[in-house]
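Design review, sub-item: ligand-bound model
Attendees: FS, YL, KQ
YL presented the inputs for the guanosine-5'-diphosphate complex:
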Amino acid sequence: LGQKISQALSMIQNAESIDEKVLDACLKEIVTALLQADVNVRLVGKLRDNVKTRANNADKGAGLNKRKIIEKAVVDELSSMLSSGVDEKKLVDLKKGQPNVIMFVGLQGAGKTTTCTKYGAYYKKKGFKPALVCADTFRAGAFDQLKQNATKMQIPFYGSYTETDPAVIAAKGVEEFKKANHDLIIVDTSGRHKQEDSLFEEMRQVSVMTKPDLIIFVMDGSIGQAAEDQAKAFKDTVEVGAVILTKMDGHAKGGGALSAVAATKSPIVFIGTGEHMDEFERFEPNAFVGRLLGRGDWRGFVDKISEAVPEDAMKEELMDSLSKGNFTMRILYEQLANIQKMGPVGQGKEKESAARIKMFMTIMDSMTDKELDCPNPKVLQEQSRVMRVARGAGCNPYCVLELLEEYKRIRALIMGPGGKGKGFMQQMSKQ
Ligand code: GDP
Ligand code: MG
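KQ shared the predicted structure:
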């Protein structure tokens, strides 16, 4: 899905000028891609209308600007599709001092047991007193798995080797932990390979017995088109209130996520990015859409510059340049080169980010010394300059603009929005 949308957007990027025809052709591709991924027709229609309106409103602007506006509109609309209309902050910011009972549901292998523990550990760090209840009597070894995870994270747990009714175990566990004043009681349930009736009946019973404050649907992020059916089936049985996508570390781009959000009308609150307990993060719609469009999590990666600098040998040199008053393109180039030197990057998104850094460095290679040392970012934005650099680097002018935008963003981060020494620099000199 992401690739198709990127292709559609590149139609706009490669067009000589953007007229109604080009925009329509591009939108048609995007709409088709979304519909093929089972995204709700109404949502897709809304996306098309909104992008069109925004593009038409931008008609006064120059060609290059319009490209950006359209891309941004598509990204924004996809992000808002992912935001489900429910305030996910309320679901994430659990109240302390009351027993929050959270029930996890999902198919077998989706990652419930792993995610339950990650979830508990996440809130434990925030000062909660979590506890885990194993209501999976279907899978052999389910209790042992939960026990092992819970012990590792030092979270109390409850389960039984002899009781066979999951609803009874769940009710007992929740009661016991309520008495012990736990403010986060997590109920892990069993799954089945398919959406079988027995699974749903069991889920309903556990839910009736434990009266959870929130039911979280755990879904493998890579399942794509099957997502909508699966999510709907769970939502039809119990009151799913939030979604967690797992296995977002692999090649999964999570196109199915859009459908899951639409089907459950519930926001994605967290994602799992690996088998380890700390590979768990808040869901960020914008970063997700970026990844969906194949741009990598470039922003987060670049922000590492400001983290890496203080310990580094290059600190003095950087400070020296900065004290002369400028974070030039050349300094950015050197910082990126340093990041590259920091060694081989990990999987998935870091690799994509590395490719992006390489692309940006290639673009900078096509700049003149004057441009690299230019104190004023505005000069670099001149259209003829952008076109010349793009030609030299053999890339689309759009990529040059992206580099300029990132440069300006990092510059503001380091120099402070008003110019000299109000940002990162000042903080560093205080240390
Ligand atoms: P359950 O049947 O829904 O309880 O799923 P489990 O928690 O037992 O997980 C099934 C498998 O998926 C296990 O091998 C987990 O280690 C793995 N897993 C769970 N979450 C993630 C994740 O975010 N990334 C990766 N790579 N593997 C995961
Ligand atoms: Mg399990």
